[in-house]
Amino acid sequence: MKCVSEYFSSGGVSYLSDEGAIVNPGPRELSAEKMGLLNLAQFCRLRPAEEWGSVIHDHFEGIRRAASFEKDFSKRAHDFNAVQDLIGVRLYPQEYVSVIENGLAMGKQMAEDLYAMLVFDFEECIVNIRPEQTIQWPLSSEELLELGIRNTKRKYSLDLFERDVEGIPIHFVVESHFYAPNILFELLREKVSAESKGMLIGLPNRHAAMIHRITDLKVLEAIHRMIPAIHGMNKDGPGAVSDKLYWLHNGNMVTLPYKIDEVNIHFDPPAEFIGLLRELQTDGV
């Protein structure tokens, strides 16, 4: 926190610190009343300590520039024809969305801890779309989500590749942009047969996703390999999205709970998934 404090004091900015966040920074205008520090901490962890000051400076200066840009842009955000190509959808942890003041975000709950948020995707920054900005727009919330998903897919490629991980086929998406987890929307749109067992999916951070298609009891080995990877990549970041392992089945996302201690992985799936494992065992696959 020393480098953070030095940044704000150098600019004459007062602030409060609360539960790992900067609260009510002022008088210099920033973008939010509360700004989490998790991503910043993850960035700093990847850099030597002597560079932390410049990393923190660049981080908060980027927020300040984004706030100024957003203020100017908001004057014309009501013009749908002018902004429709900027509309996107990005996946965020529910914890992030909960920090945003009520009524200032739009989107869809994808899972208990996962939220698909409507955003304006600028070269300079990504900002959430506010409901008040859409009043004059000709599309419903659901239609805006579909438009945002299409726009994001058009602008950002998602390269899905397979790796053999100790005999277990796992697909990965690894991208430098912030939308790797959007592979979820493509997977949810896949046509599946009645015999499909679904797939495991992890969305640890904004740059990565991993998938295992369930065909046999090797799913147990996949779980054993995916959970530590998801947990570690989410913790290390940057841009943490979810530390959960999900089961995609029949268009639904089912959370597969687990806990990790120093020695073991404790996996506690719901009854529906246990039923799947028993079915695979009975089928001998």
Outline: globular
Strand order of the largest sheet: 8-9-11-10-12-13
The tally of domains stands at 3
- Main sheet record: 6 strands, antiparallel
Determine the mean pLDDT. 85
Taking Cα atoms only, what radius of gyration do you get, to the nearest Å? 21 Å
Helix content class: 25-40%
Number of helices: 9
Percentage of residues in DSSP E strands: 25-35%
**Number of beta strands:** 15
> What distance lies between the first and last C-alpha atoms, to the nearest angstrom?
53 Å
Derived from helix and strand composition plus strand pairing, the structural class reads alpha+beta
Q: Which sequence of SSEs, written as H and E, runs from N to C?
A: HEEEHHHEHEEEHEEHEEHEEEEH
Taking pLDDT < 50 over at least 5 consecutive residues as the criterion, the unreliable ranges are none
Structure description:
This protein is of the alpha+beta class. The chain folds into 3 domains: 1-73, no CATH class; 77-155, no CATH class; 160-283, no CATH class. It is 35% helix and 27% strand. The protein has helices spanning 2-10, 38-45, 52-73, 80-83, 94-99, 141-155, 183-188, 219-236, 271-283; strands spanning 14-17, 21-26, 34-36, 87-93, 107-111, 114-121, 126-128, 160-165, 168-174, 199-205, 208-213, 245-249, 252-256, 258-260, 265-267. The strands form 4 sheets. Strands 8-9-11-10-12-13 form a 6-stranded antiparallel sheet. Strands 4, 5, 6 and 7 form a 4-stranded antiparallel sheet that branches. Helix 1 (2-10) crosses helix 3 (52-73). The mean pLDDT is 85.
